[in-house]
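Final report, Chapter 2: Outcomes

The project's central promise was a pipeline that accepts a single protein chain and returns its three-dimensional structure in a standardized token representation, suitable for archiving and comparison. That pipeline is now operational. To close this chapter, we reproduce one record exactly as it appears in the project archive, with the input sequence first and the structure output second.
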Amino acid sequence: MEQNFNISLVENLREMIRDVVREEIRLNIPVQNKEKVIFTAREAAEYLRISINTLYKKNTTNAISYDKQSKHARYRKEDLDNYLKNSSRRIKSENDIANEINSTMNKIS
């Protein structure tokens, strides 16, 4: 009977490990060019080149979108890229500046 219990315990443990591995794989599904698409808070802060405290402040102001996975925040690369694109700290290209000037001129005319 004890051996059956041990076998059952081992099978339950294997199934739990499989579930954890599947979840980790699901959270870190790479795109074709092997880029990571889901980031932890630490990874997102590194990607954005900001401190983790700044990232958390941006969470509270809804400046950066995130999902809750269990107790942890997870960030989509697409959302981080959108934040960078729309960030007021972003250095504007010549095309961006020209487009803004044209847009303003059209409003004035």
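Archive annotation: Residues 1-30 form one domain.
This record, like all others produced under the grant, will remain available to the consortium after the project formally closes.
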